[in-house]
Amino acid sequence: MNTKSEPETAAAYDPGAFDRPSVTVDVVALTARDDRLHVLLVRRGVWPFEGQWALPGGFVKMDEDLYAAAQRELCEETGVPAATYLEQLYTFGAPGRDPRTRVISVAYYALLPGPGGGPACAEPEAGSDAAEARWWPVDALPPLAFDHGEIVATALSRLRAKLGYTSVAYALLPEEFTLSELQRVYEVILARPLDKRNFRKKMLAADILEPTPRQRRVGAHRPAQLYRFTRREAVLLD
Amino acid sequence: MNTKSEPETAAAYDPGAFDRPSVTVDVVALTARDDRLHVLLVRRGVWPFEGQWALPGGFVKMDEDLYAAAQRELCEETGVPAATYLEQLYTFGAPGRDPRTRVISVAYYALLPGPGGGPACAEPEAGSDAAEARWWPVDALPPLAFDHGEIVATALSRLRAKLGYTSVAYALLPEEFTLSELQRVYEVILARPLDKRNFRKKMLAADILEPTPRQRRVGAHRPAQLYRFTRREAVLLD
DNA sequence: GGTACTATGTGTTTAATGAACACGAAGTCA
DNA sequence: TGACTTCGTGTTCATTAAACACATAGTACC
Q1: B62 reaches A (C-beta below 8 A)
Q2: What CATH number has the domain spanning B20-163?
């Protein structure tokens, strides 16, 4: 805040007296499926960028927390359940980014478990307002509306960085999972192969996993031990 | 952005049709002086929090970039020259954070060289709108207006983290400096002593410093070699 | 001019961490 | 019972981080 007397005082008593930007939230929802990282996009039904794909998002309500607005827009527009992880990413506010008027967008990124991850991994349905909603592989995105390409790129680099020093991966996996599945999530996000032995060693040493009494037997080979995260929240490693 | 047709369309053609939050920028300006880290605060002249200390900041103009708004508010309200480093920090938007109306604040943090650092380290003067402006040691702040205490805390933890993997320290030092001065900046920010030999070894190995032809002779002891950063911008280390 | 004073400047050892690397085990299926 | 496929496990080596002490180059004072 500032100490200017005129605009602030005026704003207090007459909120409509000055032009002010619109404020939206946009959500980069990410999930790992089919050994690729995917983003959830909706197809726009109205000008501008009509027919193009864009991030789900919308206006912040007058008495609504930013975090709550992001969660709400994600669910409303895409039909997916609440994200297992949702964090503010960056605020995009270049004057020309929306051709209609000045729009400042607070971007969030969300993580959801992939298929088989329980209710939170449900398929998107076109929400109340979106013409269409679907998952797109991040390495083969269509042209995006507004500056949403930049927003997605920012989200990816944040997620890659965060994967290195926190346990956020929990948000992309179901309650129980094998170490191979966990490793695949890391490989998909980092887009490079990891050494199996080093990976398992590091994960088990990090004290964030515990074995469950169950195994997963699938296919004609040795069954895998199932693990779960000891805490379903992102904790700092090291 | 979203694909809702009603509000967006309305916003495009009648920006005043809906209540919308006010958007401000607040700036956490930091500098190192007297072997302590300091924040620049202004004393508020009007309700609410009249007489209390707050971060410099103010409304974003309709056609103004967020970064430019932060730079402008910093200079206008405190009289300090343009920051050598300015980066977006986080956006604070809890509905009750300002008692007047809904205010969403995009916080930035700025770094300035300490005394002796040339024009950029000039003393603050009460700006056009601020009753008073001065540097406060971060470990002995007065009670702050709004949620500005939280904003300062966020800035400090960001700066501490960033110091570890980038060369941002350049922004807190004058063009030329000694390795001891550089080390003191690190110690002040991290609030712990560092080993001199390890510090020098790491800094020189990072390939971000170059010696100048000059030395600094001050006091009754051996003069120190002066260095400068090879690039006056934050680069990633490792 | 000699001595005290003070910050500068410099290497080595040790511990911890990260990277590379191969093979037997436990299942299913034909 | 043999072929197939994924699971599960240790060691070595290189790199990085942490601990640690003393001679040097100036000034100030006697």
Answers
A1: yes
A2: 3.90.79.10
* Architecture of the CATH domain B166-229: Orthogonal Bundle (1.10)
| Cβ contact, residue pair A3, B148, below 8 Å | no
The pLDDT score that the predictor gives to residue A4 is 38
pLDDT in tens, B143-165: 999 999 999 999 999 999 999 99
Render pLDDT for B164-194 as a digit per residue (tens, 0 to 9). Answer: 999 999 999 999 999 999 999 999 999 999 9
Q: Which residue of A has its CA nearest to B94?
A: A65
Question: Could you tell me the distance in Å between the CA of residue B188 and the C1' of nucleotide D14?
Answer: 34
A20 touching B, CB under 8 A?
A: yes
A161 touches chain B (CB under 8 A): no
Lowest mean pLDDT among A72-81, A171-180, B6-15, B195-204: B6-15
- In this complex, the nucleotide whose C1' atom is nearest to the CA atom of residue A196 is D8
Q: Pick the catalytic residue: A132, A150, A176, A187?
A: A132
- The yes-or-no verdict on residue B199 having pLDDT over 70 is yes
Is A22–B4 a contact, with Cβ atoms under 8 angstroms apart?
Answer: no
CATH of A167-229, one of 3.40.50.1820, 2.60.40.10, 3.30.43.10, 1.10.10.10: 1.10.10.10
Work out the angle at residue B18's Cα, subtended by the Cα atoms of residues B14 and B20, and round it to the nearest 5 degrees.
Answer: 115
**Which residue on chain B is closest to A61 by alpha carbon?**
B20
Domains in chain A: boundaries = 20-147, 167-229
Q: Determine whether the distance from the CB of B51 to the nearest atom of strand D is below 7 Å.
A: no
Q: Cite residues whose beta carbon is less than 7 Å from strand C.
A: A 195-198, 202, 217, 219-223, 238; B 178-180, 196-198, 200-201, 215, 219-225
Give the pair of three-digit tokens for residue B56.
Answer: 């410099």
3-state secondary structure chain A: CCCCCHHHHHHHHCCCCCCCCEEEEEEEEEEEECCEEEEEEEECCCCCCCCCEECCEEECCCCCCHHHHHHHHHHHHHCCCCCCEEEEEEEECCCCCCCCCCEEEEEEEEECCCCCCCHHHCCCCCCCCCCEEEEEEHHHCCCECCCHHHHHHHHHHHHHHHHHHECHHHHHCCCCEEHHHHHHHHHHHHCCCCCHHHHHHHHHHCCCEEEEEEEECCCCCCCEEEEEECCCCCCECC
Which residues of B are catalytically annotated?
132
Domain topology for A20-147: Nucleoside Triphosphate Pyrophosphohydrolase (3.90.79)
A23: nearest CB among B8, B45, B104: B104
